[in-house]
Amino acid sequence: MLRFNSKFLLLGVFLFAHLFVGLAQEKNASLITAFQKGSSKALSSFLGKMVEIRFDNNKKDFSKNQAEIVLAKFFKNQPARSFKLQKEKKIDAKNSFLIGTYTSVNNQYSVLIKGKEQDNGRWLVNSLDFVKK
Question: Would 72 disulfide with which of 40, 78, 129, 130, CB 3.0-4.6 Å?
């Protein structure tokens, strides 16, 4: 009887872990799709009020509207071919980051996306770091 209960408990923990990972991936699916399409408009829905954007060693802070314009220019000059998520990591209860590879027609970039989960459960990006490979 004890074996059955421990197996049942282990199964419950396993299912809960899969549910948690699945929800985290669902939250990021739209963000990943925005990168895959090279859509600054879709990406802007994830941006916080202020966003730090860095292209190689050139780092600047932008308002959400300015960041959308900067990203539109980047996507226009570097049209999307693909975006593949490489890593996702929680820093603490609210902060996490994603690392992916953005491939354009001309170049490939490592992209570090830092964000924070809001009280309403929405995840907002506060930093984008593009490093040409």
Answer: 40
Tokens 């990021």: give the residue: 28
Q: Residues 43, 63: contact at Cβ < 8 Å?
A: no
pTM above 0.85, yes or no: no
The torsion angle over the Cα atoms of residues 130, 82, 42 and 33, rounded to 10 degrees, is -120
Separation of CA 129 from chain center: 11
Identify the bridge partners of residue 123 per DSSP, sorted by sequence position.
Answer: 117
HEC string of the chain equals: CHHHHHHHHHHHHHHHHHHHHHHHHHHHHHHHHHHHHCCHHHHHCCEEEEEEEEECCEEEEEEHHHHHHHHHHHHHHCCEEEEEEEEEEECCCCEEEEEEEEEECCCEEEEEEEEEECCCCCEEEEEEEEEEC
